[in-house]
Amino acid sequence: MFRWLKKFKVTIVVIIALIGFFIWWNGTRGYDDQALAGLPDLSGIDESSVLEDGGSKLEASYQEYYDGLVKQDIKDAEDFSLTLNGADFSAISDKGSKKLDQLGDRQGSVVALEDEDSWVEYTFDIPADGFYQMSMDYYAMEGKRSSIVRSVQVDGSYPFYQSKKLEFQRMWEETGETWKDNQGNEFNPRREEVFGWQNRAFKDSEGKSYEPFRYYLTKGKHTIRIGNIREPGAIGAIYISAPEHIPTYADVQKQYADNGYKPVSNILIKVQAEEATLRSDPTLKRIEDREPDTEPFNKDAIALNSFGGASWRTGGQWAQWEVEVPESGLYEIGARYGQWFLNGIPVQRSITIDGKFPFKEMNEMTFPYKSEWQISKFGAEDDSDPYLFYLEKGKHTIRMEVQVGALGPLLESVTSTVRKMSLIGREVIQVTGTNPDVNGDWTLERNIVNLVPRLQLMAKHFDDVIQGLYALGVDKGSSEVSTLYEARDVLLSMANDTKSIPARMTQFTDLQSSLGTWVSGLTKQSMVLDYLIVKSPDQKWPRPAAGWLERTGTMAYDFFTSFTKDYSNVGNSYEGEQVLEVWIARGRDWVDIIKQMIDEDFTPNTGIKVNVNVIPANNSQVLLLANTSGIAPDVALGVDAEVPIDYAVRNGLVNLKDFSDYDDVAARFRSGALIPYQYNGGSYALPENQNFNMLFYRKDIMEQLGYSEEDIPDTWDEVMNMIPILQQNGMDFYYPHAPNNPALAINEFAPFLFQQNGEFYKDNGKKSNLDSPEALNAFKMWTGLFTNYKIQKQADFYNRFRSGEMPIGVADYSTYVLLSTAAPELTGWWGMKPMPGIKQADGQINRSTGGLAQTGIIFKSTDMKQESWDFLKWWTSAETQERFGSELESLLGVEARWNTANIEALKQMPWSTSDIDAIMEQWNWFKEREVVIGGYYTTRHIANIWNEVVLNGKITREAVEEGVRSINKELRKKREEFGLDESADDSSSSATSAASATTTDQGEGGDKP
User: Per DSSP, what are the bridge partners of residue 612?
Assistant: First the structure.
């Protein structure tokens, strides 16, 4: 037995060693740093594309703008400072802007920009040509909790695209102390906004530039316009000055000597990072770390003993701490930190003390990568010689702000090169078409100007970035560099064998997507802090991490106690009969918020105690097993939309129509959103959130193609007329298709069916209706996009939208979030409108679409039926949904924006006015598909029909008829299995009849068929 165990351990060790070797080899395999040695001189090659001759409307990046002017020998201005009072404007918008007196603690008048698209202009004189920097005193007024976003135009234009989106953060603080549940676990207190005046320089909102923007201004009169992009705020003053030159540490050391400053002694102060006094973002919060040296440490429960982590990652996010020193003198400052988020790549922070940089080096503090805790001695890169900081006796503030900094120019270079790759890809498609003969000789070198040297130049750009990363200290084995090596080598290979290019276009476009993802990933500069250190030079630095023995002991303790801990329970846990049991199929962070809201709001107001348990998301099997074994909860949230009918047919759920106020609660949602939860005259769930598709388009590219805002397609006929024009210009239209997820195919098909006035089922859900004329037309239209119009079957729409290869397409709301947060260069150059539809006889355009999401249900086994309904009503109310959405976005960022199904709550979310108007217009046509027993066969065969028609070339009618036969067979089988009474179904309202009933609602646009 022991011999077998010994062999098993040896086997495990060997496997781990092989895996480690493979990972190392994969990161370093075959990458030749001399690959470019044989290239000819490329210095005189024109990299421009013939596609740029039409004049790109996209502004240059700041780096391109600044570098171009430096080449023209433009210098920094000197000895100039000008203050423009906020209320002394030269022009102002008619709506959404006004003067205010004595806002906050500021005396005198200021100007407030309250509505989106409001603006204010100032006129001023400049004494000499040169670079100037600007900053602004601003006051964030009450809004939707997001940071303020403003645009800055100089003399009627944007000098660079970053000037279209400058972020001015709000201020947040914790209210009260942390709280603990009755299991001893610690929870974050709420973060509330602090209102007050701030000053911020006009700088890159992504933190890709060390210093504030330098605007080139010529001698004479100029006009600056500040535009409101998002959130209300006031302007106190605008400052225009010659660029500030911060002294280096060497210069400051000389000042120390001249002033006679001496180091202090016998002082060691730790400032716990989780006790930040202010922060720029409510997502910045306390987090738990289980390393034994992390202070304070609780081996038996959750202790929120550190700060930041994955949420402290976006350029411009800052946190601030207070420290009080007992005497004046020179101190050393450092921090205990963890930076294990970017493999092998350091992150940066800018650090100010009392609002100023002590010296230039603090604007670019680097925190190297390591897979464990470290001590940073704010000083030279190797920490061998910590900097000295002069601090007067008393209180001081230390602020650390996320800064991409040194990586910024490298990331800009990659983004610029990817754009050039996109242009070459479009030029190739113009020559070869979208479906070229890969064996043909296309002589691309003759048809595309400078094709080979342009490919070689792009490869060189990637190689330069690789060398730049190594210069920053990136490990040569880092997986983060492999994407660049692959891009470089693919481009060199294409340059060496241009005949292979048509056959490799899929690889070429996929590579662009990978590079876009790579850039997005490296802009996330996450770091976790345990504490700041302020000490005299004679004191030792704390050790960075506990010894291996202590860590092993902690891991062993956690392992053995894991067998007795209840990890599914969240927050306060109650015992007794009168406790509502709620299971939630979502992530732990999400459930923590819900439980906190229950304990703060629902329980105090209703007296109903609630236990909350986490179950795996998208795992309805857990609920089914619990229901079968008699331990089902009272209420479940986060339940997939297809699940309620499965339980309803088994008589496992409460019919919500039994409650007298059901109609009032149902009015919170679009009537079409309730269709999937209706069965046999009852309704068995309430929707929590909703997905929806919209049409996204690039304004700049569509204008180049001759499409104004008014010409953007409203109908599928217009889309199909536009696709050939796109393809003639090397571009394409996007419609979603997920080949590896057949369950999504039904959602991709549903809009075409509903817009043809078709339904999925007939005879009250007993038979498939997919062989109806309406459904056949829908299938032909859907598959025709891929067969007749040859749009791509699979694509990364977000990255190809950014590159311009797919300037228009249909996508869900998550694309909106991505474009809003991760595509700054497209600010102002993309739009969103309701998805295309089919024109009806009355002239209306039917845009019907849906998107099954998650629901809340009540199990029939509950002994607390009314209490469960009270909970479900509270949870789906506008107030609760709005607060949850705000708290969720505060915790996880805008990427986690809650797409609530509650109409009023959605309007309160921090969407822009124009976008929420487009969403609400689309929601007027929101309609879900009905769910019936055996309906999974419909899902399966819709995917099969697409595959047969698009991939195998089968006639649409044949593929549909085969699918319908199988679907009907399964529907009949399932109805027999559950003993459904045919006559009862005929006399009652099933899912299909309920669907028909909802389509007549014209109150707010109607959920039309």
Answer: 570, 582
Q: Which DSSP string corresponds to 958-984? A: HHHHHHHHHHHHHHHHHHHHTT--HHH
**Which pTM value belongs to this model?**
0.83
Report how far residue 991's alpha carbon sits from residue 980's, in angstroms, rounded to the nearest whole number.
Answer: 14
Q: Domain 568-691+852-905: give its CATH architecture.
A: 3-Layer(aba) Sandwich (3.40)
**Which among 152, 151, 120 is positioned nearest to 230, based on CA atoms?**
151
Class assignment of domain 699-826+928-978?
alpha beta
Q: How far apart are CA 365 and CA 637, in angstroms?
A: 45
Q: Which CATH superfamily is domain 249-404+526-553 in?
A: Galactose-binding domain-like (2.60.120.260)
Q: Which residue shows structure tokens 């959405």?
A: 885
Alpha carbon distance 410, 673 (integer Å): 47
The two beta strands, 97-101 and 109-113, are: antiparallel
The CA distance from 459 to 37, in Å, is: 12
DSSP3 helix / strand / coil % (the chain, rounded to 5):
40, 20, 40
Q: Which two tokens stand for residue 794?
A: 């699979």
User: 241, 244, 240, 243: which is closest to 226 by C-alpha?
Assistant: 240
Helix (H) or strand (E) segment spanning residue 91: strand 91-92
Check if the beta carbon of residue 635 is closer than 8 Å to that of residue 872: yes
Q: Which residues share a beta bridge with 856?
A: 637, 686
Residue 721 CB-density burial (10 A; 0-12 exposed, 13-18 middle, 19+ buried): exposed
Taking residues 539-547, what's their average pLDDT? Answer: 93
* Structure-block tokens of residue 28: 């370093």
Phi, psi of 881 (to 5 degrees): -65, -40
Distance CA 87, CA 104 (A): 15
367 with 525: CB under 8 angstroms? no
Same fold, 73-174+189-241 and 249-404+526-553: yes
- Cα(640)–Cα(689) distance, integer angstroms: 11
Q: Which fold has domain 73-174+189-241?
A: Jelly Rolls (2.60.120)
Can the peptide bond before residue 296 be classed as cis, meaning omega within 30 degrees of 0?
yes
Domain residue limits, the chain: 73-174+189-241, 249-404+526-553, 417-523, 568-691+852-905, 699-826+928-978
Q: Which two tokens stand for residue 949?
A: 């028609």
Which is it for the CA torsion 763, 765, 766, 770, positive or negative? positive
What is the spatial distance between Cα 194 and Cα 822, in angstroms, rounded to a whole number?
Answer: 27
What string of DSSP letters covers 532-570?
EEEE-TTSPPPPSS--HHHHHHHHHHHHHHTTT--TTEE
What's the pLDDT score for residue 991? Answer: 40
Q: Is 90 exceeded by the pLDDT of residue 946?
A: yes
Q: Residue 1005 burial by CB count (10 A; 0-12/13-18/19+): exposed, middle or buried? A: middle
Residue 111's nearest CA partner among 225, 251, 23 is: 225
- Residue 185 vs residues 82, 190, 716, 884: alpha-carbon distances, Å: 54, 16, 55, 21
Q: 635-640 and 579-584 as β-strands: parallel, antiparallel, unpaired?
A: parallel
pLDDT of 997 reads: 34
pLDDT band at 734 (very low <50, low <70, confident <90, very high): very high
Cα–Cα distance between 670 and 206 in angstroms, integer?
A: 38
Q: How many residues does the chain have?
A: 1009
Q: What is the CA radius of gyration of the chain?
A: 31
State the chain's maximal CA–CA distance in angstroms: 100
Q: What is d(CA 411, CA 465) in angstroms, rounded to the nearest whole number?
A: 8
Query: Is 909 in contact with 144 (CB distance < 8 Å)?
Result: yes
pLDDT tens-place string over residues 798-831: 888 988 889 999 998 788 888 887 787 788 889 9
Question: What span, in angstroms and rounded, lies between the C-alpha atoms of 621 and 797?
Answer: 33
Q: For residue 40, give the DSSP letter.
A: P
Q: What mean pLDDT value characterizes the chain?
A: 88
* Calculated CA dihedral for residues 42, 45, 47, 48, nearest 10 degrees: 180
